[in-house]
């Protein structure tokens, strides 16, 4: 079975999953853990996100991703800034992984996939539909619920929950 015409059968296949991860949710983890079973290496590209007022700093978000996914030896988190296709090339990756929760995500991600394909024809995008139990989770909602004192324990992993509780406690 050949993986593709330009990838040797025994070559290591590296995928990149990008996002702001402010914070990393169980929905993100679902997609990452599934990607880690599909690809030899998965690099989590944590975006600097100049256009967003993030709750966690870039270094904190990278550290939280690493802590939450410490049990996945083929997953690593790195900060990135700029075009995702340039980061993908710098990692010698062949695939971009994107999670889909809804039709709205699909419309946006299809447009981004097309543009990434235009910029880097050698890179494929793989869409993973989020598993039903975590489909409703978004970082935006998690942040808002946490800031308002709600229980987000079923929405994020333990390391993220601890950091989130600490962060919102210092804001009050």
Helices, strands, pairings?
Elements: E1 14-19, H1 26-38, E2 41-47, H2 58-68, E3 75-80, H3 84-90, E4 95-100, H4 103-119, E5 124-129, H5 139-147, H6 158-171
Parallel strand pairs: 1-2, 1-4, 2-3, 4-5
Helix pairs in contact: 2-6
Please, could you describe this protein's structure?
This protein is α/β, with parallel strands linked by helices and 172 residues long. The protein is 41% helix and 18% strand. The protein has six helices and five strands, in the order E-H-E-H-E-H-E-H-E-H-H. It has helices at residues 26-38, 58-68, 84-90, 103-119, 139-147, 158-171, and strands at 14-19, 41-47, 75-80, 95-100, 124-129. The protein has a five-stranded parallel beta sheet with strand order 3-2-1-4-5, sandwiched between helices. The longest helix has 17 residues, at 103-119. The protein is globular and about 50 Å long.
